[in-house]
Amino acid sequence: MIFSPSTYKKLKSRLIKKYEKSLTSLLDDASLYVDLQAAKWLNKNKNSLRNYSSTNWFLLTQLDSLFYFKEANFHASRGAEFSGIDDEILESWNKNEFADVFLGQLNQGSSVQRASHVALKSFDQHLVTLAERVCFGKTKLSTCYRLQSSLGEVSGPKGTVTLMLQDQIDLFEKSLVIRSHSIREGKRFRSRIETALKVIRGCSPSSWERFVAFTEMIVPIKQREFVSYSHQELPGVSMINLFDRDFVDLLDDLLHENGHHHLNYYLSLTKLIEEPIDAIYYSPWRRTPRPLRGIYHAYFTFFWAFKLFADLLSSNAPSSQEHVFSEREIEKIRWRAVEEYHMLSFSYVDLTWALGQGLISKTGWKLIEEQQTELEKFRSKILSWEKKLTYHVRDLKELKSTLREWKKRYLK
Q1: Does the structure show a pLDDT above 60 at 412?
Q2: For 307-329, what is each residue's pLDDT tens digit?
Q3: Residues 6+ apart with CB under 8 A from 194
Q4: How far is C-alpha 188 from the chain's CA centre?
Q5: Among 177, 151, 269, 257, which Cα is nearest to 210's?
């Protein structure tokens, strides 16, 4: 099986080996770019990055981007006309947190090469400061430094940047770091997350095994517009809204982001899909057409929400010793299981079509195929769960109607 603790362990071992190879390669590059401050820092402090960690992987990906821009700049245009490499540089800067510096220079009439050079200098200074903070706990900031909220950094008085407080949960075989803004807040987060994880472990053991394998840190986010998110460059770190979400949402968010971490391990190691930009697939989750990448990622990650809710319903979750679920919570769990089942089933048809077009790799399809096999195990229970719905009867009717309509529009 792909979804098993032994496979998770092998996957992490592969990522560690890739990290070691990437570090060796970057050290070779650093010797070529001695005019970069970050390259000098890397040569001097390479031993601090010898061992794999989530933050070290993050630093390496940032350094790799810096060296890419340095190399690409040798081939960038000095005039007003764009070349193929200029388009690539523009696209790459647009994904970087110093995109504003690059685009600002372009808007002032600078060439791509000049704009990239200016942005590169700021990015270089930022990375040295970031490396000093991550590796040595230094607090001094450069004028170019950008706050790293994903690492738990917050703005302090007079332009300072501080780290949120850090606590740790040691639950069974799992250690988990939790960030918070205050001791009181940290205690509240710790209690809620511990309870959620105990429920997951007791009612959905396979979900617990995956969580143990991939999630390392929880960083709270306060913005109402965000539910949760994570970054491929920061393995195992989940940014989760712990302020505006209820207990059922928390269960969902913990495993949804864990699904992204799991998928990101594969994405960092191999190519799972081709990524044509055509938005020819309807996303039931976004309720809008999306490219294949969006559908593939959604299927993989939202499946784990279905698995959790289906396991909760199948294991008589209301009698959990850790949390007594209210009738409204049980209704929500039932609705979420039914909702995800129908949306996943809809998108599986599109993914099957994409496979036939040669857009999904062998490894990429194995992941989806094993999830679909697990999904089908609950087919016989879906109708009974639907019949027990009370508050979401109309929602179910609208969902089925919408999916039928989009199936007609996107018939392939």
Answers
A1: no
A2: 999 999 998 766 667 888 999 99
A3: 169, 171
A4: 24
A5: 257
